[in-house]
Amino acid sequence: MSQQQREVLYDRQPRAFTEGTVENINQQWIFFDSETDEASSLEEYVHQEVEVQRGRNWYRGTLEENGVVNLRRETFSLSDGEQIKIRKQMIYSFDSLLEELDDDSFFQFVTSLNSLDFSIYDCIYSYNQLSFLRDVHSKSGVNFLIFDNESQICAVQHHFFYSEKRHDRFEFTLNTGKRIMIEKLNNPSDS
Known about the structure:
Elements: H1 3-11, E1 17-25, E2 28-33, E3 39-41, E4 49-54, E5 57-63, E6 68-70, E7 75-77, E8 82-87, H2 92-100, H3 103-115, E9 123-127, E10 139-148, E11 153-162, E12 166-174, E13 179-186
Antiparallel strand pairs: 1-2, 1-8, 2-3, 4-5, 4-8, 5-6, 6-7, 9-10, 10-11, 11-12, 12-13
């Protein structure tokens, strides 16, 4: 699985974006979250990925200062009342954990999480033990993750043992009592 294939999986995640409208009030761009009706300065999201609706199409780019969106080949300014989506940021320790996983474990983890109606963007807490073991050859421990999709909570324990072989076990427990476990054993050459 290439980085591009991982990006496609990221893009297909539910709740990957916060949607809303923008308005220029007193020379300041304000973002109004359509779900919560909360207002925030658009400057908080500068250099983040956004999608802007123009007509029936959504255009993906990077938000720059002063309400400017930089697309691949062009730049344009936002208009009052325009619909936009702002890519949610993942918790740094969780993002690092996803990068550490080999392709098979990554894919199985994300698809299992999705099968329980959770998105990687629903992560509200992440403890990544792997980040403390970067220079250690034989790594073992447990990572703890909490997800909230606004209707259920899911706790995930990621047990890992990385030496000559890589062993990942994910235990998912929902607040309803439902539990699933997936396990993956890989040789480093398989990744």
